[in-house]
Each structure stands twice: as C-alpha cells, then as structure tokens.
Design a protein that fits this description.
By secondary structure, this protein is mostly loops. It contains no helices and no strands.
C-alpha cells in the first residue's frame, strides 16, 4: 500500500493508510489548529 503524504494539507481521510484505525477520521478535531475549534490531531498535518 502506498503511503499518503498529504503534502497539500487537505486532510483527505479516505486516502490515508491509517483510515481504519484513526480515531479522528472525518472529525473536525483532525484539522489544523489554524481552524477555529480544531485541535490538529491528525498525524498527517
């Protein structure tokens, strides 16, 4: 399986190799802290 690099910082969970195990999949908390209320918990960002 190819590793999803997320160079464009779009946070596309369906491309990520951790999508089945990630507790933050498709949740607002995964987005960067620059978004109001987001926690930046995605390991790819």
């Amino acid at each position: 399986m190819e590793t999803y690099a997320n160079k464009d910082k779009k946070c596309e969970c369906y491309k990520c190799e951790w999508k089945e195990k990630c507790p933050y999949k498709d949740k607002y908390q995964r987005l960067p802290r620059t978004n109001p209320g987001a926690l930046g918990l995605c390991k790819k960002l």
